[in-house]
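Appendix B. Raw example, untouched.
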Amino acid sequence: MYSAMIIRKCAGSRLKRSPFPITAFILLQYLGVICAFSQDSATVKDTSSLKSDTLLVVGKVMLGGNMHTKDFVILREMSLHSGVPITEELLEYDKNRIYSLGLFNQVKLHVLPDSPGVADLLVEVSERWYIFPFPVLGIKDRDWSKLFYGMGLLHSNFRGRNEKLYTTVVLGYDPSVVLGYRNPFLSEEGTYILDGRLGFSVVRNKSLEAQAEYGNFDEKHFSLSLSIGRRIGIRHTFWATGGYEIVSVSDYRPGRTLSPEGNDRFPIFGGGYVYDARDLQEYPGSGSMARLSVVKFGLPGGGVDVIRYAADVRHYIPLDSRFVVAGRMFTDLAAAGKTPSYNRVYFGYGERIRGHFKEVNEGENIFGASAELHYSILSPRYFNIGFMPPEFGVWKFGVVAALFADAGVVWFRGMPPAVSDFARGYGVGIHFLLPYSAVLRAQYAWNEARRGEFIIDLGTAF
């Protein structure tokens, strides 16, 4: 009876709409307006004493607050279901997995004793708003001098099935137009995934070698891709992709494209596997992730004929409630024909070595490794902004201190790297966990020569 009342309350929370404009919400969010969070009197009382690792198993799983999101979208992420023993670890793990969907401002799991040895589980969510025009503002390649801006239209939860339907128009650095669609629930079981994208962009050349003789230039990319995935359980995903790309340059010179006309046209085929057992994608505190892929650019014997083999492995070990050790190793290797400049890999753009943050190193192959020690200064807390609509009114904040070390190297085929070729760096930082899954990092790093640099960066290092 009590749990039913909670479900009705959660469901009714979206009936009161507010005309408060979204643009004002965005402004207030970045001004940091915060109100005190107060627990609703009708919320289930603290049940931590009931969350035994041995005494209780799940009876029923009930959902509340998901007025738009389909039940199966939430249940697909959960390891707790009828008959499974309830543990503190699984409760926290499932809460973070559901939050990682990016559909909710807050997720709560309540244990409700039902009969001896059995407890029902209530999943209470606060939905984010899911369809709106949005401003596009950011930096490219983690470089604050490469500012881009524009507008987009997003439906982040189309049909309540976590489908993403979006379009963006971006100006500034590397302007682009993109239309995309992602459906992780071709069936209610969430077994098959569809992902499609159509895009056009003007990309500033990244290759230092390509611009050395004649100066820099722009690349025009037109791309079309379609991917199909199969998800097994909650941790394993296999995928295959196919597409077509056209690359042309603003000022043709030999070597800027493989085609002598300055236009490379080629199909793309690939496949891969992802294992993801991380608890929280935006800022993991436990679990592992591994991504393996093989992608073929062009056809054998054609103008473009490149194969890329890539691997990315990450692991997060909680030492106690405040300390987490995190590690990452990754590589991306080229094979088959000649690698065009736009298909090379770099440190100094997307991938960075702290201590050598602004140094650009170019090659056909890349290898990197990183380690971090996190200490939670302020565990993530939720604040209720009382005058905001429910979809925008729950904000999450946290602060984490970090020690880190990076190392990596790039090289061309036929020129294997030596240990002395590895760039290395280490340092300290403060990470701010912000609303809507944003992460801001302020860091100070030293390289192997003890030269220091201050870094402001967005997102997690890995």
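End of appendix B.
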